[in-house]
Amino acid sequence: MRGGWGGDPSGRRPHTEHGLLWNYEYGIRITDPACVCQLREDLLAYGKLGSLVSRTEVERLTQIASSLKALRQRVEREATKKLADAFRHCLDEAETKLSSFVFLKQHHHYQNIVAIARRNSIMSIRASGKTTNGIFADTIVYLLRKYGPM
Questions:
Q1: Residue 22 structural domain
Q2: Cβ neighbour number for residue 111 with a 10 Å cutoff
């Protein structure tokens, strides 16, 4: 592919094929102060439903995902019981470690982690130490603020 971000022929700005060819994005201009204020409040409230992830946590998750991926590939190649057991043990340890992390909102290694972490273990990452009831309560409060009584 030739060119760069937004038609930048120098290629100085990052781009991906999917970002340029597959995504449809629109921009709008809102000038009404009340509407802008409400939109801002809605976006900030929505953003609070997730958790921040430090660079250190992302790096640890990346290492865990990389080691699991390498071990999985080795298990698939050699298909021995010993390696399969080691993989299961490593995966169980990783799921335990992953449960202490906060939800990854947007990170390019997220798909690797999701593919490797089985049995919905990603739910423990999203929870960030909250109970299921706590997450549900936060979501209900957000929806009530956004849409009013339902």
A1: 1-30
A2: 10
